[in-house]
């Protein structure tokens, strides 16, 4: 069987030593857990356009394409064995230029909040934790949810 791995774009919006997370709610999957603003690449859409779209849809911010930088790829497998590929982008949040992020999808998100990058909440979804770890450790490819060790 040919594997299918959805491609996600994840935004690691940071300000000082903090990152913006959203608490999932009402989706039926990982509700109550914290995750990065993110979503799937849509058919015919490039990764930059996708991360800009998801940023606006989820936290109401308009970023310029030059403000986002891809920093890592995360290959995540969830507890049911389904895998996906995540393209992790960062952007520095400038409140004077961007305004304040808002919960633009209250039907999918209970709230948004800033957290220290080195002290994420215990209820952070493992995929998000892996993305933050990859960014903080400058790791271009991060595995998450795979039980076998990878070659050094």
List keywords for this structure.
8 strands, eight-stranded mixed β-sheet, NUDIX_hydrolase_CS, 152 residues, Nucleoside Triphosphate Pyrophosphohydrolase, 3 helices, single chain, ADP-ribose pyrophosphatase YjhB (NUDIX family), hydrolase, alpha+beta, hydrolase activity
Blueprint (SSEs and pairs):
Blueprint: E1 7-15, E2 18-24, E3 34-35, E4 38-40, H1 47-59, E5 69-77, E6 83-92, H2 95-98, E7 109-116, H3 126-136, E8 141-144
Parallel strand pairs: 1-6, 5-8
Antiparallel strand pairs: 1-2, 1-4, 2-3, 2-7, 5-6
Description:
- Pfam families: NUDIX.
- The longest helix has 13 residues.
- Strands 1, 2, 3, 4, 5, 6, 7 and 8 form an 8-stranded mixed beta sheet that branches.
- β5 and β6 form a beta hairpin.
- The chain has 152 residues and is α+β, with helices and mostly antiparallel strands.
- Helices cover 18% and strands 34% of the residues.
- The chain is globular and about 50 Å long.
- The chain has a single domain, classed as Nucleoside Triphosphate Pyrophosphohydrolase, CATH 3.90.79.10.
């Amino acid at each position: 069987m040919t594997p299918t791995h959805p491609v996600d774009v994840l935004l690691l919006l940071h300000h000082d030593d903090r990152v913006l997370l959203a608490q999932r709610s009402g989706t039926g999957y990982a509700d109550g857990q914290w995750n990065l603003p993110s979503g799937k690449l849509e058919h015919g859409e490039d990764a930059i356009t996708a991360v800009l779209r998801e940023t606006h849809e989820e936290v109401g911010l308009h970023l310029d394409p030059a403000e986002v930088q891809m920093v890592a790829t995360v290959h995540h497998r969830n507890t049911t064995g389904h895998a996906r590929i995540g393209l992790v982008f960062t952007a520095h949040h400038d409140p004077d230029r961007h305004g304040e992020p808002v919960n633009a999808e209250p039907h999918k998100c209970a709230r948004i909040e800033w957290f220290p990058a080195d002290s994420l909440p215990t209820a952070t979804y493992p995929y998000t934790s892996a993305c933050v770890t990859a960014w903080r450790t400058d790791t271009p490819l991060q595995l998450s949810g795979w039980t076998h060790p990878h070659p050094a």
